[in-house]
Design a protein that fits this description.
- By secondary structure, the chain is an alpha/beta fold.
- Helix content is 53%, strand content 8%.
- The chain has two domains: 153 residues, HUPs (Rossmann fold, 3-Layer(aba) Sandwich), CATH 3.40.50.620; 183 residues, Hypothetical protein af1432 (Orthogonal Bundle), CATH 1.10.3210.10.
- α10 runs antiparallel to α11 and α11 packs across α16.
- The chain starts with a strand and ends with a helix.
- The site of one fe (ii) ion has 7 residues, from α14.
């Protein structure tokens, strides 16, 4: 019996996966197809969606869209997903021994084959196939055969980021998968729905712009892009309150706000960064110190700014929706030289305050002095 095995995290499964599976079935002509969602890939780490949700999405996004002749012989194998531990492919194939096995995967996974558990035993236990993905230079080992066809340049990693930024993913995901993600509020949809219902439309749009820019800057500068996106999404969560409620919140929660009296007298809106940090912790369950620090420091800055603090400060000051003339140049500069962009953004903020004869918070002044030090 010829068995086609399709393993992966499927976090979430997309149209590229479905096209690859159908093309592989047409080429290999199996008697049986087994889709094996992993509990946790030994190489890729923990998926965002839990195993139960990924099993349902594998049915909606991989099995259901198959042409009927292949759907009839296809089943989803839940053993790996339910194992509650990473299962190596060598174990999965061992359980299917006796059949003529054909294993398919994407180009990136195929290229990582030498790092898989027991590659020499694996190599001889199946015929190996991969689907080429445009835009990747990863080279699979020579024993991999290419599945004929062109497959869209989609990756689940990119889709998770797009979903968390409220972008339209209908070209890449089947409607049933998208509906399931929305119903279960997976991939950051829970955070988006709270922000959407508490912020003004303009503030929500700004939030998405900041999160997107922070994520791109983090990628460019080798920081954690998931943390940067989350910090960007939550940085203005406190803006749901008008100034007098921000002041009441800070008092009630006894937030440690430096120069609180001067802030209350000059511009209580400056409290929103501290309130956003508190909301991030309490309402959104964030405990990561880097994310919380970036949210806290995005308005006033600090004497010592960590990499994520700098990224969020610049992303907030130079986001796409900022109208001032230096925003576009700061945005472009930030990809080449983050510190130079930070200096430009702080200078702009100070100049704006001075032009209005406004009080300057000592944290901003000390940040400027650190950046201006020869
Ligand atoms: Fe803000
Ligand atoms: Fe902001």
């Amino acid at each position: 019996m010829r068995v086609l095995v399709f393993g992966g995290s499927f976090d979430p499964p997309h149209r590229g996966h479905a096209r690859l599976l159908a093309a592989a079935a047409n080429r290999i002509r199996p008697d049986k197809i087994v889709i094996v969602p992993a509990y946790r890939s030994p190489l890729k780490g923990t998926p965002q969606a839990n195993a139960k949700d990924r099993l349902v999405m594998a049915r909606l996004g991989l099995l259901d869209p198959l042409p009927s002749r292949w759907r009839r012989i296809c089943r989803i194998d839940a053993r790996e997903a339910r194992a509650r531990r990473p299962v190596f492919t060598v174990e999965t194939l061992g359980a299917l021994k006796g059949a003529e096995l054909h294993f398919i995967c994407g180009q990136d996974a195929a290229a990582s084959f030498p790092k898989w558990r027991n590659p020499s035993l694996l190599k001889s236990s199946a015929t190996w196939w991969y689907g080429a993905r445009p835009g990747t230079s990863a080279r699979p080992p020579a024993h991999f055969r290419q599945i004929p066809g062109r497959f869209p340049a989609i990756s689940s990693t990119e889709l998770r980021s797009l979903l968390a930024l409220d972008r339209d993913c209908s070209p890449e995901l089947f409607p049933a998968v998208l509906a399931y993600i929305n119903k279960r509020r997976l991939y950051g949809k829970e955070v988006l729905s709270v922000l959407k219902s508490t912020l003004s439309p303009a503030r929500y749009a700004h939030t998405l712009n900041v999160a997107s820019l922070a994520e791109s800057l983090a990628r460019r500068h080798g920081a954690d892009s998931d943390k940067a996106r989350l910090a960007g999404l939550l940085h203005d969560a406190g803006r749901r309150y008008p100034p007098h409620l921000l002041a009441a919140y800070a008092r009630r929660r006894r937030l440690a706000v430096p120069e609180r009296t001067a802030i209350l007298a000059s511009d209580p809106m400056l409290l929103h960064a501290y309130v956003s940090e508190d909301l991030a912790r309490r309402e959104f369950g964030v405990s990561d110190p880097e994310v919380l620090s970036a949210v806290r420091h995005h308005t006033l800055g600090a004497r010592r700014m960590r990499p994520l603090d700098r990224i969020l400060y610049v992303a907030d000051a130079a986001s796409l929706d900022r109208g001032h003339p230096s925003a576009a140049s700061a945005r472009a500069l930030a990809f080449a030289d983050l510190d130079a962009a930070l200096k430009l953004c702080v200078a702009e903020k100070m100049a704006h305050a001075i032009a209005r004869e406004a009080w300057l918070h000592p944290l901003t002044v000390s940040l400027w002095n650190c950046l201006a030090r020869p």
